[in-house]
Design brief:
homodimer; 63% helix; DNA-binding
DNA sequence: AGCTAATTTCTGTGATTACTGACATTACAG
DNA sequence: CTGTAATGTCAGTAATCACAGAAATTAGCT
């Protein structure tokens, strides 16, 4: 499978993006390829298209599966595993958010809780304690909010985003500041 | 400056977190230290506290400045630069979001636009074209929304998040799906 | 069972990134 | 201007990460 120029550009750029967000370049590229392909590919096709080692594809595929971004598909009269990703970018986004939350957010929240529970901490700097407490509250708020957003059906989520900051008009009556209203 | 156990744990964990999000471990640690310290520190204090080379502090500081996360403070009768970060975790978050948008999001949007503008693309796979178009729309929506959210005053932002998915009740009347509402 | 395709695991190598220590530059005091 | 403290730059080294190729394993066919 020969990549067309635009597809190549998209895939390469997606690899760069991934790197900057802590995701292996090849892993991101494979995912981008599957996304553009829009159909299940088997490992050998990926090898040939991206010019990477078969073993590299194997482990990258594993990685993508652990992120729940791709799944195996079997075709009639073909022994090989084929891999497919959602073609719905919103769904992909939600999957990544969900997974990053579980992997990185939740454990951090746990660490912060333990920090605050540490009895030695009382004797430590009160300012630091306060800031860790605020960090925990921040992460809990963000976390709970993320959970809710991710659960919304796609179209609702889009609407919520498009509503954007107009939402604040609905919040009047609380102590909501009106400055910077946009 | 000797780190207390909890502070040490916080800083080490923050370093791990940073790594997973594509931010240098030492850079994250220095920022965590400044955050906990809650007061301006000079380079030598950072060197001693984190046991890293002076030159490493220098470049990490530069990095943090480029992220707009810290700024220089001068103390009376002290030639040395001191560095300080906001102690408001929401403000820090907004700063990071703003900066990542400029660095990574916006350029990607630009690439996607160019992909779609590419005349060769018409002759390429229509499905892929459609998916790139959807990706662009997705990123534009997310981007515009992020801009607005980041502009909201802190307390409003917190309120918006705490409102969470209840917001969808305010959207009735459009084609908003009601499934998964809870 | 044996044979072969498909896949995974593993180990060594290559590439990238992070870091240090030496040196260079800048800023300031006297 | 000279000396010194502070900061910045840079080249080499260390550590980490990504990857290829070989070997091992698994799965399916006959």
């Amino acid at each position: 499978m020969e990549l067309r120029p635009v597809a190549r550009r998209f895939i390469l750029h997606w690899g760069e993006m991934g790197s900057k967000w802590g995701i292996n370049r090849t892993v991101s590229q494979i995912h981008a390829l599957l996304y553009l392909a829009g159909r299940p590919l088997h490992a050998e096709e990926i090898v040939e298209t991206l010019n990477i080692a078969r073993s590299n594809v194997s482990s990258s595929i594993r990685e993508l599966q652990s992120w729940k971004l791709i799944h195996v598909v079997h075709l009639m009269s073909d022994r090989r595993d084929h891999f497919e990703t959602s073609t719905d970018v919103w769904e992909l986004f939600r999957t990544v958010v969900r997974e990053r939350k579980v992997r990185e957010f939740d454990p951090t929240v746990e660490v912060l809780r333990e920090c605050l529970a540490d009895s030695n901490f009382n004797r430590e700097d009160a300012g630091a304690q306060q800031r860790i407490r605020e960090t925990l509250q921040f992460m809990e708020t963000l976390s709970a909010w993320g959970d809710e957003m991710v659960r919304l059906p796609r179209e609702t989520l889009v609407k919520v985003m498009k509503l954007g900051s107009k939402i604040q008009q609905l919040l009047r009556g609380g102590s909501t500041s009106r400055k910077n209203a946009g």
